[in-house]
Amino acid sequence: MALIYDFDGTLSPLNMQEYDFLKAIGIRDKKQFWNENSQLIARHNASNVLSYMYLMLKKASAANVSIRRQQFVEFGRSIELYKGVEQWFDMANRLGDKYNVKIEHYINSSGLREMIEGTPIAKYFKEIYACSFMYNTDDMAVWPAVAVDFTTKTQFLFMINKGIAKVSENHKVNSYVPENQRPVPFQHMIYFGDGETDVPCMRLVKQKGGNSIAVYQPRNANKRLMAEQLVKDNRVNFACAANYSAEGEIYNIVEAIIKQIRSNIDFETLQYKNQKRFDKQK
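Request: output the structure for the sequence above.
Response:
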């Protein structure tokens, strides 16, 4: 089964640019950066994601800050993670071992892949589907390579479903693969998200028989109400505070889902064996 995570607001409290990157380019008030991004979007009728990627390169260059790939990875090392996140993946894998279900972890984010690679949890992900830059021969960022918006996020779900790893092979998403031959059925997915760009993914997973968890910042009443409204609107299965420790609600919910999947697999196997026995008698 696949556990699929948004990043900003889901595993980390803030947007990843708001840690060491903004400090390095001399911006102390994060609103300054995002307000300028909003102005660019309105002026050029632009994509929010492409706009912020352009602005990152522009601001870094103006501040004489390195835009080499490794520098973005270094910026990622300062990213704060929610309570329990660093231990979460080992705990989830142990739950998989306990119920004999193979667990795979994926990132599906509009944030920057290079920064996510700088976090201590990057090693746990089978794939990181996120925005990234193209780099020249000097390893300097020159142009967006991948820009992930809410539409692209749903595409990545089908890539996971069909076992397509490379973004460059996204054309394979439209290839026909029988449901029983897809590596990760939607029913075996759990999607973790917090924001508007996650709603289509959370709803899609839920509609196809999987489970979606709307995560909100603890003690943030507005975020909690938004997450709870998604449950009321039947877009997600659960709304939980972002606490990934063994004492948190998320752990108990995920264990219950894994147990249910194990039970369904056992039932389907039993039914299949029973049917095969009668087929032999014909």
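The CA atoms of residues 14 and 169 lie 31 Å apart.
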